[in-house]
Amino acid sequence: MLRELHMMFARPLYLFASVGVMLLSTFFFLTLMKGGTAEKMPVAVVDLDQTSVSRRLIHEMQATPSVDIQLVTNSYPEARKAMQQGKIYGIFVIPEAFYSDLVAFKRPQLEFYVTNAYTVGGNTAYKQMLTMVNLTSGAFQREVLRKKGLPDDVIMHRIQPLSIEGHMVANPWGNYSVYLVSTILPGILGLICIMLTIFAIGFELKMRTSHAWLRAAGGNYTVAMIGKLIPYTLIYLVLGVGCHLILYRYAGFPVYGSHVRLMFGLLLFIFAMEALGITLIGLLPTLRDALSIGTFYAMLGFSLSGFTYPNMSMLAPVKALSYIEPLRHYYLIYVNEALMAAPIENSLPSMLALTAFMVASLCVAPRLHRALVYQNYPLK
Amino acid sequence: MWNAFIHEIRRIFTDSGVTVIFIVATLAYPLIYKAIYWNEQITDVPVAVVDLSNSPQSRSFLHQWSASPDVRLTHTCCSMAEAEQLLRDQKVHGIIYFPRDFAQQMADPLGQAHISLYCDMSSFLYMKAIYLSCNQVMLESMRNIQIDRYQNMGVGKEMAWALVQDAPYREVALFTPTGGYGSFLIPAVLMLILHQTLFFGICMLSGTAREENMDQYSFRSLVGRAAAYFVIYCGLASVLLGFLPRLFDIPHIGSIGDILLLIVPYLLAVIFFSMCVSVFIRNRESGLVLLVSSSLIFLFLAGISWPKEMIPEAWRYVSYIIPYTWGAHAFIHINSMGASLALVGKEYIALWILTGVYFVLACGLFYIRKRSKEVQEVRSEGVEELRSEGV
Lengths: 380, 391
What we know:
The complex is a heterodimer of chains A (380) and B (391).
Chain A: H1 2-10, H2 12-32, E1 42-47, H3 52-63, E2 68-73, H4 76-84, E3 90-94, H5 98-103, E4 110-115, H6 119-147, H7 152-159, E5 162-169, H8 176-206, H9 210-216, H10 221-250, H11 259-283, H12 287-304, H13 316-322, H14 326-340, H15 344-363, H16 365-374
Parallel strand pairs in A: 1-2, 1-3
Antiparallel strand pairs in A: 3-4
Helix pairs in contact in A: 1-10, 2-8, 6-7, 8-10, 8-11, 8-12, 8-14, 10-11, 11-12, 11-14, 11-15, 11-16, 14-15
Chain B: H1 2-14, H2 16-36, E1 45-51, H3 56-66, E2 71-77, H4 80-88, E3 94-98, H5 102-107, E4 113-120, H6 124-152, H7 157-164, E5 169-174, H8 181-211, H9 219-248, H10 256-278, H11 286-301, H12 313-320, H13 323-336, H14 345-390
Parallel strand pairs in B: 1-2, 1-3
Antiparallel strand pairs in B: 3-4
Helix pairs in contact in B: 1-9, 2-8, 2-9, 6-7, 8-9, 8-10, 8-11, 8-13, 9-10, 10-13, 10-14, 13-14
């Protein structure tokens, strides 16, 4: 272990790089989505009617806080171009003869166009468009009813006799940041764990220094392994606890269930990633190959864990693959503990799965031991 | 220069690690992402029903909703507690709740009926599927109630419709009618794959050269190497950006010519950007740390998943120096939204500016490295001489 500490500080680049990466990522993701909700997106209004009524309508929309009209034009192609340039996410069209049709009860048709080339931007623009339609569509009825002398709350019931109360379970603000960062940051930490672990062991193999390492441990593989990994594990644990505290104390992300079990899940995840690192370098005792595969493996975890695109919609073989991603299991624990406040039985399968990764790493021990002793692997 | 070009091509194909990154990873990654997002849409999200009103009205609502492909009403519960239990166990991802007075309120000419909808927020796509489809049904039944009520008041049907919905609307999803997740993400990922494999490969080659003390910093080697990467990646980028969207059947309404014209400054900007960074790389593996930390950050910084309008100004300025930011938006606008090259002029010019800036910067950095390396060599030779004289 002392030897490892010495080596660690002799080559501090990786260590600092890793800690630095974690700090930078934490800072980046926590500041990127300040507020965490996309309330409004720039849209365009195409006014083909060009009457005082349509202009007043546009003014009313502009005065609505949840609407952001960036462009008012009388040409649809111009608005479409603005969309293709990425300036706006939606186009609202007030048709020709809108006003005259309206007063003649001819029910002129409004149109709106949103782009799906950007998911969050497009969705937000879509909701905003619905607001704009309702502003337009309800206005007339409201006027008629008001002229009849009905009070406003009766009018409200009349106009909207049915309403949906939306409840966003465990994330009532619809905060995108809470949802995204809670899985991304542990994922990055996991990446660091797997890479540093592979590097720590692989570097000995690459430099052909594994004999000196074994000698320092009295020739005992287990002692050598434990000695080597203790300092790294300590760093991971500090980063893990730090990550947990920053997310759930400092940034105030909600945990409806047990903090302890969530943190325990994170620690299990860290160990699982470390164990996965050992397994990979054991199977492929070439530093470069193991590192590339390890990174690739861990990077796929972000998509396969199913926190952006749900697991239930993946093809069966892809779904099966997601089970060998530790991040998937951590995500499930996170959902159970932080969001659902579920009993421990719900998290147990995931916890067991993470433990399985540790057991698997023991299976490569004989092979890795042989590699350390005989150095029987290609160097480059 | 020609020699440097040939030399670099040979190095790329003799170094299995680099070949894997440049060729295999670049072609395999898109396939994997396509496989993950194969279904594009999420459909049949399981939802639990708690219907305390147990009325024809609520049943008709549910009947209409169950026709939507987005959701499947899998469980009928007697109480909220039971439904919450299902949500906790992740058997359902949403709950719809009709209160006891639902039917009465619907029947009351002045009443307002409420429905409560609970959405699992563990993935935003659940919420989108549940909420939007339910909203559609709600709007439709709402209009029907209104019409009925006006007609009961003696208003003619035509007139009632004019009152209820004086201006009906039509919604059109432009460019990507299905609104699928893969259609949105894969174009952005394709550009990121080009960016990151090139970035990592170049760092790896530089790191290896430096480990073997074979690194060269002449102007000729700079241009020759860049040309080697450019030639290889022109082919790869044409396949990824021109062919794969067609093969994958994701939106591809842009002109191939424009895409090819976009590839030129994008690759050049990425190449010189990577060569600037690679000057600081000492080891073969160091680039990996950069690769890992930068991939997600570049993706989010560019304002693709999280809209660029919602990114703090400081981060937005940072994003401007990354070629990916401009390249990704330009490609999405051309490929997925059918923009012409003229419409992405801003991004296109920005890529050429970045190419120029990074080229000059790379020349400068190469020159500094060359000088310091010469100084080192002179010094070590000097030491050798002193030693031999001393002995």
